[in-house]
Amino acid sequence: NVTYYRQLDVHIGEHVKADEKNDVYSMYGNVHVHFEANAWERDEDVTVRTMNPSDCYDCNLFRNMTPVGPVLEMLPSHKFPDGKEPLVTVDISMATLKEEGLDYRNLKIYKVDAETKNLIPLEMEGGAVLLSSDYSSCDTLNLSSCAFVRINAKTHTFSKFVVLDSLKADSIVVADSIPEIAEAFSCPQMDN
Length: 192
What we know:
Elements: E1 14-16, E2 22-25, E3 31-35, E4 44-51, E5 62-63, E6 71-75, E7 87-93, H1 94-100, E8 107-113, E9 118-121, E10 123-124, E11 129-131, E12 148-154, E13 160-165, E14 173-174, H2 188-191
Antiparallel strand pairs: 1-4, 2-3, 3-7, 4-6, 5-14, 6-13, 7-12, 8-9, 8-13, 10-12, 11-12
């Protein structure tokens, strides 16, 4: 009896060459990451994906957190050298903002740090940019002609990220940090 084995190398993500500038897009194209040359020490397979906030385990660590749009995840975990931080770009539909009653000027990207249970605001690069449905610039005086808002921020590490209304971010707390008030149990029939 002879058993044959075959080994295949499986690569997940987009191959990023360390010595070149690179852009990696999510499957839907609404999120992408730009890398400067030499942001990585060696060539790497990079994944940029989006997920529904209800599928984000780390997001359940926080109360009052309502992400705007999808949760972003960048893999593999990595710490980037100073001056070589990648630029994370997110496009959010104006319809989403209108549904949720949010102002595009208050959007920020936050890193979800599950280890320290913190939301860390990323350093924004420029202001929010309004785009038409063909991703060209649109008139800020006529918001009805705009289909998307694009925000950019740099990050030192890969992780999970969320877009939040910065005015509401201060009300987000760690889920287990709120003391539960237990009422004294009393049954009138047994108290006698």
